[in-house]
Each structure stands twice: as structure tokens, then as C-alpha cells.
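ingest -> fold -> write
write: protein_1
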Amino acid sequence: MTASTLSNPVPAAPPTGRTRKSSREGYKVNWWLTALMLVASLTVLLPLYFTVAMALKSPDQIGGTGLAWPNPMNWENFAAAYVATNFPRAFMSTAFVTVFSVLGSLVCSSLVAYAIARNWNRKFFRGSFVYLLSAMFIPFPVIILPLIKQTALLGLDNPAGVVFLHVLGGISFNTLLYIAFVRSIPVELEESARMDGATTWQVFRKIIFPLLAPMNATVGIFAFLGSWNDFLLPQMMIADPALQTLPVVQMLFQGEFNTNYSLAFASYLMAMAPTLVVYILAQRWVLSGVMRGAVK
């Protein structure tokens, strides 16, 4: 063997197709589970198709199973629904409730969870956690009438009152998610910050809250869907019809003796569009937040 051979080793041969194939020999497709998932997907795809088809039909095309595709398609239904619901005003009212409900849920629930998780050795905080969890077992319709009476006496029979109840009602479940996640954050990060002179609020704002990003996305999307699609609270709390949200305004298409299905489904699609956009943008954080919060 010459010196040139030692100084210039022969490069390894690239992996052949057989080698790549052998790396996937242990991989097997579970066809039964795949078929089950395809069938389960129909529970979402079929109603969505039905909604789109009904939104594009004229009143004389509605009949039968409702699954037939409209021919011709009536795009004017969206314009008529836009005008009938005064969509911009209802959209802004719904957006106000949703945005502040999400922000309030993120801030309040994370603060409560951080206080409980870092003071778990104290009986007061453990008792507070049990108290919050017990609220999850109380059916909301049981307490809705007393809540509405109290908010009316306080002058909160408006979208701000709906925001307040959304934030308050979500603290129990959101805190449960946050506590599991906060416990996975090393305490040494906070101790090093305190040695540099950081206060408790600075530690939370600059260290803890940024690390809660996956769980913030999970809690945020749950709060968004719950607020955007809420019908019961706005209907029973908001006294001014001009401030009603989209789910309540859409009831105008349902009369005592007839229902304008075409305009109703067109308005449903317009109201559903923001939820789809938010979910598509945040879906990758949801599963990671739940999984990281479940692992200690």
C-alpha cells in the first residue's frame, strides 16, 4: 500500500436501493387502522360538503337528501347573508369578545398556574388547586341564571361581561394544563435570574411566559373556539341587539314556520372561515403543548 493510498482514502460507495429498502423492512402499514381513520374522517368531510352544497343552492334546489351538488351555483347567497346579518358589525363584536377572552385566558390562567406550581408545598395553594378542579364538575347551565343576574346588577350585560365570564369559566381547565407544563420547566432557570436581581414578575414575564409558548397556543386555540362559537352566553347576557355576536345574529334565518337554509349555511361558512385560519396556523403547537405538559 502506497503513501498516496493512505493519504487519499477511497470514498465509501453511496447506499444502494436495496440498502434503503432494508431500512424500511420493519415498517408495516396498519390497514385496518387506516381504513378506520378514513371512515372516521367522513364524520367531518360529509357535513362540510353538505354545508358548502347548501350554501350554493337556491331555495328551489333544496330537497331530497341535500347532498346533490347545486347546478347552477348561487354565489349571491353570500352577499345576501352578508347584508342580512350586518356582518361587519356582528363580526367586530364577535372579534372583540374572542380576542379579549383569549388574552385574558392566557394571562390569568398562566399566572394562577405558576403561583400554584411553584408553591405546591403550601396547603393554601394545594387547596386552591382542588377548588379550581371542583369547578369543572359543576354543569354550567346550573349556574348561568345566577351569573346573568349578578352581571346585570354590575352593569356587565354587554360584550365585556361575556369576556369576563369566558375568562373566569376557563380558568379551571386552563390551569390544569398550565400546571403540568410549568412543572416541566427547571427551577434553576428562575434561581439564576433571581441571583441577578430579577423580581418574581420579571421572572415570569421574561423567562416562564416565553417558555409556555406551546401551551399558550393550545390554551389560546381552545379559548378562541369556545369564544367564537359561543351562543348561549351572548344570547342571554347582551341586552343590546346591535352588539350581538355572529352565532346569535344567524338565528334570524330560522323563523317559526320556515328556515332560509341557503342564506343560513352561507352565513355559517363566513363565520367558520376565521376559525379554520386560526386552527391551520396554530395546529402544530396544539399537540406539542399537550404532550410536553403531560410528560414530567
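write: protein_2
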Amino acid sequence: MLSAKSLFQEIIDDDESFALFCSIAAGGESQGGWENARIAALVPRSERRLAPRIARHGADEDKHGRIFTALMRKRGLDPVPVPPDADYTMLLEQGGIGLSHDRLRAERPLTVQEVVTYLSHSRVTEQRAAEQMALLRRHFGDHPDIGRAVRMIADDEDGHLAYCHEELLRLARAGHAPAIRRTLRACALAEIRVYRDVSLAVMARMGRLLGWSRARSAVLAAGIHAVYVWERLAGWRRMVSLEMPERRDALGGPATAAPEYA
């Protein structure tokens, strides 16, 4: 039976596919760590209260990158190059979503509108991350090798999403609601397209590594396209709604340490 659990079980049981999965995840998380660190350094004076929370966000992302790398090392595996068509963060930037790396390398402070852009981009991508990690936590939270890492990362992603909701609502009350709505919608529509393309690229490579039949690969590709159609028609709306989270000030403290792996 083809299910999310059986599919991922097959990926983690094979060294080559596991290394590819962890390398893609580690690369994206590490990139997010750098981006958040730069944003924290460039926050405008009027939003300086955000700086430690953005820095905490970046520290969490760096930690996740180290965790995925450690999971590979634990199995005696080395990271592998991330294929360009599977590089989610790079493709989002190329699509004009979020703040460009050229902008983040500049030394001039961000504007409040750029902070809105950052938070809107994060709200959309953290929705995706939280959903993916919730799926992994449901099926593999008790796994002897990866369960602890999955639970920790899933909890962090929930906190990141709560933080985005809370801060965007604060900025909406301060008069930025129209800009937030426009930016969230643009980010969501771009993200679902990039996510579809990356999913197809990753599944194609996994299929080659694991020797999937053409029929099985076609079924998975059709499923990815079906998810995209649903998201394009209606699902994107879950990425743009804002509500005050139960978990308030989720990034108000220091980052937790990454688990140690033998």
C-alpha cells in the first residue's frame, strides 16, 4: 500500500535516499539560519524588539541543519550535493519571494515594509514546514533513530509559525494590514508552485535511487500535481490567514540545544 508512512520508511531505510533527504533538509535549514541572522542585524530601530526573536529563529534553523547532518554522520554517511531543481530556498529567492540575498548582504537597515515581507514569507514557509514535520512526528515520532530529532524540530517549527502569526497581527494593528494581505497572497501562490516543482524533482531522484517502477513514479507525480491543483484553487488560503496563537512569545527565550548523537 502506498502511503506517506510507507514512502518515507522506504526513503529512510536506504542510505543513498536518506543522505539525499537529509542533505536537502540540512541545506535549506542552514540557509534559513544565515538569512535570519542577517535580518536580525538589519532590523530598523523602530522594530528592534524583534531582533532577538529573529536571531532565535535563525539559531533554531542552524540547529536543525546540524541535526540533519548529525543523522547522516550517525549512519556513516556524508552529505551529498543538493540538486538545483530541489533547492527550495534558492528557488523561492529566484521567484522574488522574501528578501533577496543581495539585499541581506547590504549594510543599510531594513524598512518596516521589508520586515513585513520577511514575516509574510516566513509565515507561508513555516506553515509548510510545520505541516511536514507534524506528518513526520505522527508517523516517526517514536522511531528509535530519528524520533527525537523529529519531535524537537516539529516543536520548533510550531513555535516559528506561532511567532509569525503574532508579529504579523501586531503589525496589522499598526496599520500595515493591506500590505500584509497583498504580500501573504503573493508569497503563498509562489510557494505552492515552487513546492510542486521541488516535490517532483525530489521524487524523481528518489525513484531512481530506489528503483521505483514507472507506474509508481507516475502515481506519485500525479498525486503531487493533484495537491498543487487543490492548493492553487483553495488550499493557499490556509497560508494567509492570521489568528492569535495559543503559544505566545514563542521565540522569546534562548534556542534549545541540539541532541547529541553517538
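write: annotation protein_2
The mean pLDDT is 95.
DSSP finds eight helices and no strands in the chain.
pipeline exit 0
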